[in-house]
Amino acid sequence: MDRVTGLGGIFFRARDPEALRAWYRTHLGIDVQSWGGTAFRWVDGNDVPIGGTTVWSIGGGESFAPGTASFMVNYRVADLDGLLALLREEGCEVIDASGPSEFGKFGWVLDPEGNKIELWQPPEGR
C-alpha cells in the first residue's frame, strides 16, 4: 500500500494572521488570497500545469489542536481509510477522519513529538 504520495499543503499558526500574511505578501511575493493562503499549482519543466496544487496558509490555529506546533503539514494519500487503519494497527495516535467533501477526505495523526499531521485523499480525478 502506498502511504504518502505527495505534499498537499503547509499551514502556519499565527498570533496575528493578518500581519503575518502581509509580511509574506510584501517580502516574499506570495499571492495571499482572502481565505488566508494561496495554492501553488504544479507544473512540469516547461511551466505547463500537471494537475495538482500545494496549499500554503496562515491561520489562527484552531485546527492544530491537540498538536502544539506552530505548523501542520498536509500529506496527499491514495487510500485514507486504509492508511488510518494501518496506522492504528501500528500503534499510532490517530485523531479523527472526516467524511467525503468537495475537497476530498481528511484524517489526522499525531507524530511521536505531538505534531498534528493532516492526511488528505483528494477527490477522484484531482
From TrEMBL:
Q: Superkingdom of this entry's organism?
A: Bacteria
- Any single Pfam family the record assigns to this protein: Glyoxalase_6
Q: Which residues form the VOC domain?
A: 6-122
Protein name from the UniProt record: Glyoxalase
Source organism per UniProt: Pseudoxanthomonas daejeonensis
